[in-house]
Amino acid sequence: MPVSPRRATLATVAASAGVSVATVSKVLNGRSDVAPATRSLVEALLRQHDYVAPTPRRADVTGLGSVELQFDADLNAYSTEIIQGAVAAAAEAGVGVVVSIRRADRTAAWARGLVAAGRRALIAVTSELTTGQLAALAKARLPLVLIDPLNLPRTRVTSIGSTNFAGGLAATQYLLSLGHRRIAYVGGPAAAACNQARLHGYRAAMEVEGAPVLPGYVQAGHFRYHDGVTGGAAVLDLPRAPTAIFAASDETALGIMEAARARGLRIPEDLSIVGFDDTQIAQMASPPLTTVRQPLREMGGVALRTALRLAAGEKIDSHHVELATGLVVRGSTARVAPA
């Protein structure tokens, strides 16, 4: 059917597809109880009709509706801190927060489905978004805020982060102040912006001190426990093993602790470890973990308030905000043992 010059409605799409309005709504909301052939037909017609869900009124933004808080992987201690901050800010604003895990098919239908479900904005955490996905969100008029984005899109996108370079610098400088010179870095994805900043801080501190970064001393991962186990094993099995390791997350640090214990190393007597995030697991570790505090709850709250301002059509002062990090010293670090 030719595209109508008027704004398409759910009824328009349903009539074209020969299905009910409820079925079209299910497709928009990503429901699984729709036959694959029907779903494909409806999605094609949504694109053909250039369907965009009605934009909520300004009053709805501040008093009703919800914000989607989407993560790229299974929830962990890092995620919990972000959620706590976002939920607290949402309660003050009178809106709800819907937590989800990233869907594989981030398409135009996905963006329209979020709007149709009543989302006022999307907060994506440690996400990697393509130009097409950003365009789909813009077309659906759905405001986007990124927290610790893995990539920094060329398009002007609002993002919230922390002073990752300063945190990496402080962690490494502290280990150097304890007399360590053989310091390794077990990080996150090599291309992730936050990981690169922490790694650059580590390298800068090592260079200023004249401490060499030996071959094999930098390992990449995904900020997870098992990355610490494998990355820790890789550096601890080197001919010149490090006496200290800076981990790019608390989870990674705990994995390194396990790799060290499996090799009969004591922490901090034989190996000092510094993490990054200062989640609850840092305090529960044995020994408690020295780490760089990333203000995750504050980041969640700032992201939520920023998302609502964008949804209300307000201008924001900066498209990128960095909150300060700080070193928290606990029991996982000590002066280097004499040779």
UniProtKB/TrEMBL annotation:
InterPro entries: HTH_LacI, LacI/GalR-like_sensor, Lambda_DNA-bd_dom_sf, Peripla_BP_I. It comes from the Bacteria. Pfam families: LacI (PF00356), Peripla_BP_3 (PF13377). The keyword Transcription regulation applies. Keywords: DNA-binding, Transcription, Transcription regulation. GO terms for molecular function: DNA-binding transcription factor activity; transcription cis-regulatory region binding. Residues 8-62 form the HTH lacI-type domain. PANTHER family: LACI-RELATED TRANSCRIPTIONAL REPRESSOR, LACTOSE OPERON REPRESSOR. This is LacI family DNA-binding transcriptional regulator. It comes from Nonomuraea longispora.
